[in-house]
Structure prediction request, 339 residues.
Amino acid sequence: MLPLPDDRIADEPGERRDAARLLVIERGSGRIRHQTVADLPELLDANDLLVFNRSRVQPALTWLRKATGGRVELIWVEEVEPGLWRVFGGTRKLRSGLRLFGEGLEVEVVERGGRFATLRVVDGPPIATWLEAHGAPPLPPYIRRRRRAQGLAEVRDEDYSRYQTVYASENGSIAAPTAGLHFTPELLERLATAGVAAAEVTLHVGPGTFTEVTPKEVEQVEVLPERASIPEETARALQQGRRVIAVGTTAARTLEALGVRARDGGVAVDGLADLTIRPGHTFRIVEGLLTNFHLPGTTLRLLVAALLGPERMLEAYQAAIAHDGYRFYSYGDAMLILP
Prediction:
């Protein structure tokens, strides 16, 4: 693949959400066109069903301190039982029994294992409440590193709104479903006017989404299960025979993991998305995908390669790199894969 120039890595959001560039590629012919996200109403058919992940990014990034004054960066993943939370991040600095402090908060390390630790609330409000007041958007580490290198603040006020989809409604993710960042209320209205149907699923993005993979591990890697659900309205929409276009890899993974059960029964399904999608996977629900350009060595790229084919995916990435102006990764531009 062509080398990616450093200035093509997006560490800031674009000026307007739907002004993002959009590389359109057809799975069958391999034909590539260069558009913008604002062109979606003209690119999709009235028979299409766009499926969005409505999970909201919680302000899960925090910096707590030890009694000695040392700082510990943690991301709060989920409450495993009342008052007990699983976290990851700077867990190598933790040991059982250690107390950590935040503004109006005291927690104790119960146990540590690998990248994760379990913390018990000793004093303070419920963590979900505390995070809304004191947490920050859990931006990808590479964005924060790049900003630090430029002498800029790691997290800015605009990140609280821009690292969040406009339709997010169900709290629980530790990263944004980034394909959805490109939509505005006006674009959603234009899509509806054009006859494109919309439906929602929920997948709370957790550490599993960021599972790293080397070329030798493609057949062995397994993505950690993540909480997911499909409401009854979406199950019924899947029964209508429309062409299903997933908005983002998290929506695609939810549909492939739970969608057949939801569609065939016409009922809501709650469970775990415990499916690792890699080349060779037979897609049973998803026919098209809107997705950002992802970091190398991730299972997100594996999913794209599974739908588009490894060679076609490589062609798409090379075309975006060669074409002036495309920005990459979480705050970057997008690709639309059509049947």
